[in-house]
Amino acid sequence: SMVYSRELKIENTEFFEEPFHIMVNIGNENEDYSLPAAMVLVDGKEIFKPSDFKKGSGPLSRKIILSASSDLEVKLDGETGSYVEVTILGWLKDDLMVDIDGNIYRTVKIGSQVWMAENLRVTKFNDGTPIPLVKDAGSWYRLTTPGYCWYDNDSASYHNNFGILYNYYAINSGNICPEGWHIPTGEEFRKLVSTLDPGADFVRHEASLKAGGKLKESGTTHWADPNTGATNASGFTALPGGCRSYAGNFSNLGTFGYFGGCTDEASLALRYATGSVFMRDKVSRYVGVSVRCVKD
Fold first, then answer.
1. Separation of alpha carbons 259 and 251, rounded Å
2. Cβ-based neighbours of 174, under 8 Å, separated by 6 or more
3. DSSP state of 152
4. 52, 58, 194, 214: most buried, per Cβ within 10 A?
5. Which residues partner with 6 through β-bridges?
6. Per-residue pLDDT tens for 206-225?
7. Nearest-5° Cα angle at 168, 163 to 170
8. Which domains does the chain have, with CATH numbers?
9. pLDDT tens digits for 4-62?
10. Nearest Cα to 286, choosing from 131, 164, 122, 146?
11. Which pTM does this prediction carry?
């Protein structure tokens, strides 16, 4: 086997002692080979040990304290093709959020609320329990337990931009969002919309004629033409991730963005041909939709 060890001096005089976020992912370029053994130490303290890594677990993450004189040591024992990826991020950045899979998201403050500015793409609940991946339409049909999928079951094409579609039971598990974040309530959706459109009338209309364009990503890279009214003035960058019906069919990618809330009547819906935003579009519990978490 190959044994590799590398020690790095973190030379940065710009900070003293600050919290950082370290993410480590290991693997082998040849899938037939076994997972390598890896160890990561910071200032001589073991942050990750070989038993922490399991096949299919994805990146592991920890909160650590680094100073300008910190030492980072990485040890790897494996066959040819083995690799270890180490990423260090500033933990306290207000504009970043990290999920349990190691996905990094931009966030945005709108009024007094802080929202994810990207669609959720996590595959585990925040306690590490896997969310069931349900590809088959027959298995998705009227599913009453948590499930997720990618649009057209195509993770390569849609994971990084449109994210994942989740059913009601995954969304309302209570722990799909990272710690410190949660699924929005109907009231929180209304607060978001009224911040962008103070004149929105929620008594007669669960809609706003002005806020939709401020929420939608501008242009036609992801939204279908004409993407009416889209300015993304809010920074929310709403995307048209489409949905998966109760029968397991996929539709509306590029034309509709549905965002699930904490009840089946708490939702946000945006459409390509209007600058309006619709709330409380009743979404069936069996339908797969996009998710944006809001900060506690």
1. 15
2. none
3. G
4. 214
5. 74
6. 788 889 999 999 999 999 99
7. 65
8. 2-92 (2.60.120.380), 104-295 (no CATH)
9. 555 555 544 444 455 677 778 888 877 777 778 888 888 888 888 888 887 656 677 77
10. 146
11. 0.71
